[in-house]
User: What shape does this take?
Amino acid sequence: MQKATLEALLERKTQATKAKMAVKEINVPVLGMALTVEKLPLTRVLNLIDKYKDDDSLNGKFELYKELIYISVPLFRSTQLQEAYEVAEPSDIVTLLFEQNLTAITSLGDKIAAMYGINGAEAVEELKN
Assistant: This one.
């Protein structure tokens, strides 16, 4: 392991700034296309996890991932798209576009969570506790 230097720490700051504004293209087989996913501030993701921390049910995990996907994919926040699908709640667009495919929603949710160093549903559960 190398010794920390001022230059190395300043370089990490530059890298961290770029990582904060990261976007990632993720292939979604159920849609047959790739989605652009934004990396949100960590505090926003942690607040979302906290919102569902007391709900250990499958539905709670589903709602967490549905909302994580919704806030991470700018395209899903389009009012035009939401009106076309006649959603009751804006985040319901995820369920409708994914044809109520729980595996596809969980898969994308896992990939988005991995952008924050959270690997898999077990890691989300660990954070909730």
In short: The chain is about 55% helix and 10% strand.
